[in-house]
Amino acid sequence: MLVSAVVIGWLGGLVWALFFVIAVLLYYIYRHLRFMAAMSDWLANSEQASLPPANSDWDEIFYGLERMGRRHKRAMARLMAVLDRFEHAAQAIPDGIVMINDADQIEWFNPVACRHFGLDDKTDRGQFIGYLIRQSVFHDYLSHGDFREALVMKSPVSRDMTLSVQVVAFGERQKMLISRDVTQVEMLESMRRDFVANVSHELRTPLTVVGGFLETFLDTESLSRDDFLRYCDLMQQQTDRMRRLVEDLLTLSRLESPQNRLVETTVDMPLLVRSLYQDAVSLSAGRHPIEMGLESHACVIGNADELASGLGNLVSNAVRYTPPGKAIRLRWGMKSGQLCFSVQDEGEGIEAHHIPRLTERFYRVDRGRSRETGGTGLGLAIAKHVLTRHHARLQIESRIGHGSCFSACFPADRVVADEDCLETSA
To answer: How many beta carbons lie within 10 A of that of residue 167, not counting itself?
Structure first.
C-alpha cells in the first residue's frame, strides 16, 4: 500500500508539474503573441502610434525596428527631395519632357511640353500619347522603336512651330520624350540653302556670259575691232555686276559680324542727304526729275559710312526701278512723330503681299526687271541691317499705280537737336 501511495503521489506531482510547464508555455506563447500583435499594429500605424511598451528581447526588437524606420524615413525624405529637384529642374529647362510608360501612356510632362503638344495636365495623364499627337510621322517613329535619331516634325498646336523630338529610355519600363523648338534653326537653315542657291544663280549668268565670249575669242581666228570692243563692253558689264554682288555680300557679312562694333559719331544728316541727292542725279543721268526737301537740320548719332551705304541703297533702288520721266523725292523731316529720311518715287508700286519680304536677300518682285537694271537683290537687306544696328526701322509704303515710299525712321534717343548739331558740326 505504501508503494502504491508513493507511486500515486509521484504521478500526481508529475501531472501538476506538467500542468505547470504547460501553463508557463501558454503564458510565454500568449506574451509573445501579444507583443507580435502590438508590433503588427505599430508597423501598420507607425506614422501615428508611439513605440509600444515591451521588455527583454522584444524591447530590443522594437527599438531596432524604430531605428530602421527612422533611417527609412530619412532615406525617403532624401529621395523625395531629389525627385522634387528633378521635377523643378524638368519644369525649368527650355525643352519639353513627357514621361511615358511601356504602353506609351503619359505619366508626367512639364509646362514646355504643354506648349509644344497642347497637353492638358488635368485630362491627359494616363492617355495614350498617340491619341493626342495625331501625326503619321510621329506614329511611325514611335512604333518602329528606332530612337537613335531625332524626328523633326510640325507641332500639333501650330504649323508655324517646328519641333525636334526624340525618345530615350528612362528606367526599366519608362521612356522620356524630349521635344525642342527648332523653328529658328530650320528657318536659318532654309535661308542658308536659299542664299547658296541664289548666289550660285546670280554668279552663273555673268560667268556664263564671260566664258562664252572667251570661247568665242579662242575659236575665232579673226575678229573685227568693233566686235571685239562690243564683246569686251558686255564682259565689262557682267564683271561689274559680279563685283557689285561680291561687294554687297562682303558688306552684309561685315554688318552681321559680332566683331564689327559700331563706331558712332554725330552724323550731319542734311549734309548726307545733299550727298545722296547728288548721287541720285548722277545715277539718273537726267532720266528723272529729282527733288530734295530738308525740313530739319537735326543730326543723328551713328556711323556715317554705314548710313551712307544703307540710305544710298534706298536712293539707287528708286532710280533703278522708277520709269524715266517719273519724279523721285528725297526728304529729311518729321513723319509719324519721328525724324525720317524718305525716298518717294512715282513708279509702278509694289503689291502688298511682296512688302514683308522685300528685305530678304535676293528677293525680287520682278526678277527679269531687276537684272536689267543691274540690281544685286541685296540693297534692301543691307539697308535693314544698317538701320537695325542704329536702332532705327525701315518703313515701306506702296500702292500699285501710285509709287512707293521707303523711309528710314530714327528713334528720339538717336537724334541730335538742330542747335546741338550745328555746334558739333562747327
So the answer is: 19
Concatenate the DSSP letters of all residues of 341-375 into one string. EEEEE-S----GGGGGGTTSTT--SSHHHHHHHT-
Q: In what order do the strands lie in the sheet with 393-399?
A: 290-294, 328-335, 338-345, 403-410, 393-399
What separation in angstroms does the CA of 63 have from each of 52, 57, 69, 163?
10, 10, 10, 57
pLDDT the model gives residue 422:
53
Position 426 scores a pLDDT of 42
- Residue 203 phi/psi, 5° resolution? -85, -25
Q: What is the pLDDT of residue 425?
A: 46
> If you write DSSP's letter for every residue of 56-90 in order, what string do you get?
HHHHHHHHHHHHHHHHHHHHHHHHHHHHHHHHHHH
Cell numbers standing for residue 323: 520709269
What is the spatial distance between Cα 129 and Cα 46, in angstroms, rounded to a whole number?
Answer: 40
Q: What is the CA radius of gyration of the chain?
A: 43
d(CA 99, CA 113): 10
Q: Which pLDDT score, from 0 to 100, does residue 61 have?
A: 67
Average pLDDT, 10 consecutive residues per value, the chain (426 residues)? 61 71 74 69 61 62 70 78 70 81 86 87 86 87 85 88 88 84 83 74 79 81 80 83 80 77 88 92 90 91 90 90 91 90 90 84 65 67 89 90 91 80 51
Dist CA 144 CA 374 (whole Å): 54
Alpha carbon dihedral 80, 85, 91, 97, in 10-degree steps, equals -70
DSSP string, 258-320: TT-----EEE-HHHHHHHHHHHHHHHHTTSS-EEEEE----EEEE-HHHHHHHHHHHHHHHHH
Q: What domains, with CATH codes, occur in the chain? A: 93-181 (3.30.450.20), 188-256 (1.10.287.130), 265-425 (3.30.565.10)
- 363-368 contacts at long range (C-beta below 8 A, 24 or more positions apart): none
Residue 359 cell numbers, joined? 528685305
CA atoms within 13 A on the CB side of 49: 14
- Fill in the amino acid letter for 270: P
As a whole number of angstroms, the distance between CA 212 and CA 222 comes to 17
Nearest to 317 by CA among 249, 409, 396: 396
- pLDDT at residue number 120: 86
Q: What is the largest CA-CA distance in the chain?
A: 169
